[in-house]
Amino acid sequence: MLIDTFGRVATDLRVSLTDRCNLRCTYCMPEEGLQWLAKPDLLTDDEIVRLIRIAVTDLGVTEVRFTGGEPLLRPGLVGIVERCAALEPRPRMSLTTNGIGLKRTAAALKAAGLDRVNVSLDTLRPDVFKTLTRRDRHQDVLDGMAAARDAGLTPVKVNAVLMPGLNADEAPDLLGWAIAEGYELRFIEQMPLDAQHGWKRDGMITAGDILDSLRTRFTLTPEGSQERGSAPAERWVVDGGPHTVGVIASVTRPFCRACDRTRLTADGQVRTCLFATEETDLRATLRSDASDAEVAEIWKKAMWGKKAGSGLDDPSFLQPDRPMSAIGG
Ligand SMILES: C[S@@+](CC[C@H](N)C(=O)[O-])C[C@H]1O[C@@H](n2cnc3c(N)ncnc32)[C@H](O)[C@@H]1O
């Protein structure tokens, strides 16, 4: 089991399959892109499946989320999902994606054993999408989401980040649209994880701002008990139900105390947190012919050292060296 000194147990594994992306979201990376990882530094498909097998069979992981970069850019994705679906016990598997290319692969991913997807979409306006992502691919994302829904990769969750001066006014429109399409919308506060280090606390759109904006059109009531456990999103029932909306207040109301996550970068480093400043190299361990038991021990030791919180609310907070795209969002 992956337990830390605060008694938290990590059962949710985020696996980055690549640091590359086909969008250039302004809150994530610069227009020219980044220095991508070299191919020999990336874990191979076999190495990824081996680490997921160790996590699931020896370390108590029950949920696997594939992410990136853009995970649909990984050529072996469907095969990786298929091999992980054959593991005993079988983990629940999801994918966080920008949706570009999902129209082509949704049915194959479902057949391989993927359970569901989270698709990122910040705006309903194609011109704003182009400004925000620096690519003219709005319709591809909408098509990808619809294909995921039709393939049964449900519930399709939509992740939206609001940016001042760009899409900050779109919260009610996005919620109305998501309800009409049968998607579950979640807003994520913008975090200091951009490669350009341009994030500013002042002026960011907070969970409070988002809820105020939604309440101009909808009645929101807290879902269930106020305890959100390890779920990062606080959820509200919309207009009496059955639809809900989530808000992930990573900055203003972090959920570190109940965190159940462990992360693996595309180059095989274990991270205990998005904001961790240290990593543990599992790739070197794998490539030194270590046994599964040795790999598991190193992973456990890494998680034992997990810090109490992200440190975002501490004045001495330092942004990690790697941006979100290279960690795996
Ligand atoms: C880094 S992306 C990786 C997966 C995939 N490419 C996608 O678009 O979903 C995962 C999520 O992180 C979000 N994200 C990226 N940078 C962020 C930031 N600085 N603050 C908050 N969310 C961010 C994206 O909007 C997306 O929903």
UniProtKB/TrEMBL annotation:
Pfam entry (one): Mob_synth_C
Cofactor binding description: Binds 2 [4Fe-4S] clusters. Binds 1 [4Fe-4S] cluster coordinated with 3 cysteines and an exchangeable S-adenosyl-L-methionine and 1 [4Fe-4S] cluster coordinated with 3 cysteines and the GTP-derived substrate.
Pathway(s): Cofactor biosynthesis; molybdopterin biosynthesis
Keyword presence, Transmembrane: no
Positions of the UniProt region annotated as Disordered: 309-329
Catalytic activity: GTP + AH2 + S-adenosyl-L-methionine = (8S)-3',8-cyclo-7,8-dihydroguanosine 5'-triphosphate + 5'-deoxyadenosine + L-methionine + A + H(+)
Domain of life: Bacteria
Binding residues annotated for S-adenosyl-L-methionine, in chain numbering: 27, 69, 120, 191
Cofactor: [4Fe-4S] cluster
InterPro entries: Aldolase_TIM, Elp3/MiaA/NifB-like_rSAM, MoaA, MoaA-like, MoaA_NifB_PqqE_Fe-S-bd_CS, MoaA_twitch, MoCo_biosynth_MoaA/MoaC, rSAM
Keywords: 4Fe-4S, GTP-binding, Iron, Iron-sulfur, Lyase, Metal-binding, Molybdenum cofactor biosynthesis, Nucleotide-binding, S-adenosyl-L-methionine
Residues that hold [4Fe-4S] cluster 1 according to the record: 21, 25, 28
Signal peptide bounds: none
PROSITE patterns, sorted: MOAA_NIFB_PQQE, RADICAL_SAM
Role played: Catalyzes the cyclization of GTP to (8S)-3',8-cyclo-7,8-dihydroguanosine 5'-triphosphate.
Subunit (UniProt): Monomer and homodimer.
Name of the protein: GTP 3',8-cyclase
Organism encoding this protein: Streptomyces venezuelae (strain ATCC 10712 / CBS 650.69 / DSM 40230 / JCM 4526 / NBRC 13096 / PD 04745)
Name of the gene this protein is made from: moaA
